[in-house]
């Protein structure tokens, strides 16, 4: 919620002084003039704000829908910058509010890593998106009668990972020294563990097919964007800075990827909870 801060305060009107009527009148007139000027300035400022708000109408409506469905502050770590983007307050990276025309931003998180056991570094910020129309179509019947507290305790995140719902995790690199080899090794570890968890040990070839997409030729300066998208039919499509580097059809791989961000043991616990609340709010619209 946007709060207005006023860089001024109204002065108290001078008390009447029967011995100096002209002076009292003069001071009162000056005070009235100051208040009028402030009021005029405030009116102009509000007019400008209203004009700017017209440009933000689409996303403000989106936030309004969520807020009306759930009174909790769902977007505490996000700040609105325009009708199309939301800025992560921790890294300063902007995230599109809508991706690929139909995928709505559900929440933003941060992947942190301990460096040499001494220092936490911000590796990348991530945004989780999903097709809101498909969410409502595939999950409303199951959850329509749930109360807010029941939705909070439900397996909503698990359902969205299992269903064939178009989703994207958008990674924006925050650590300027991150190499593509480090990304490849990190996915070998994290995704490999999920593949074993959900599908057993015989998935080395599937893991290799995924990690081999991150070739040494790709560079990842700060601000680079990696997108991992589930397309219809449980196809995982990977892009780096807008260039597609591979697609793999595997429900198991898709589930393993999204489990990193909204599963039982996510990279960012608060982001997982925010996403779940926003999913619940969507189903109550």
TrEMBL record:
Membrane-spanning intervals of the chain:
28-50
Segments for region (Disordered)? 1-21
GO terms for CC?
chloroplast stroma
Q: Which InterPro entries does the record match to this protein?
A: Chalcone_isomerase, Chalcone_isomerase_3-sand, Chalcone_isomerase_bundle_sf, Chalcone_isomerase_sf, FAP1
User: Aminoacyl-tRNA synthetase among the record's keywords?
Assistant: no
Q: Which Pfam families match?
A: Chalcone_2
Q: Residues in domain Chalcone isomerase? A: 104-275
Which molecular function GO terms apply here? fatty acid binding; intramolecular lyase activity
Gene3D superfamilies reported for this sequence: 1.10.890.20, 3.50.70.10
Offer one example of a GO biological process linked to this entry: fatty acid metabolic process
Give UniProt keywords alphabetically. Answer: Membrane, Transmembrane, Transmembrane helix
Question: Known PANTHER family for this protein?
Answer: CHALCONE ISOMERASE DOMAIN-CONTAINING PROTEIN, FATTY-ACID-BINDING PROTEIN 1
- In which family does this protein belong, per the annotation? Belongs to the chalcone isomerase family.
What's the protein name?
Chalcone isomerase domain-containing protein
């Amino acid at each position: 919620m946007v709060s207005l801060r006023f860089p001024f305060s109204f002065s108290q009107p001078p008390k009447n002084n029967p011995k100096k009527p002209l002076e009292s009148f003069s001071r009162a007139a000056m005070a009235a003039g100051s208040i009028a000027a402030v009021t005029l300035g405030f009116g102009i400022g509000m007019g400008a704000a209203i004009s700017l708000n017209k440009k933000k109408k689409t996303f403000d409506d989106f936030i309004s829908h969520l807020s009306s469905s759930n009174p909790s502050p769902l977007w505490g770590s996000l700040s609105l910058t325009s009708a199309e983007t939301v800025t992560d307050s921790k890294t300063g990276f902007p995230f599109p509010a809508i991706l690929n025309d139909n995928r709505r931003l559900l929440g933003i998180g941060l992947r942190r890593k301990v460096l040499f056991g001494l220092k936490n570094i911000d590796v990348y910020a991530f945004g989780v998106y999903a097709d809101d129309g498909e969410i409502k179509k595939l999950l409303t019947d199951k959850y329509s009668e749930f109360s807010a507290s029941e939705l909070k305790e439900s397996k909503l995140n698990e359902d969205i990972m299992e269903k064939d719902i178009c989703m994207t995790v958008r990674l924006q690199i925050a650590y300027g020294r991150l190499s593509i080899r480090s990304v490849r090794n990190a996915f070998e570890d994290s995704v490999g563990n999920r593949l074993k968890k959900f599908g057993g040990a015989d998935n080395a070839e599937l893991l290799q097919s995924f990690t081999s997409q991150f070739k040494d030729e790709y560079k990842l300066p700060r601000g680079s964007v990696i997108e991992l998208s589930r397309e219809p039919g449980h196809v995982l499509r990977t892009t780096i800075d807008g260039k597609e580097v591979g697609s793999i059809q595997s429900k198991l791989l898709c589930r393993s990827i999204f489990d990193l961000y909204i599963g039982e043991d996510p990279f960012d616990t608060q982001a997982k909870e925010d996403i779940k609340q926003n999913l619940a709010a969507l189903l109550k619209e």
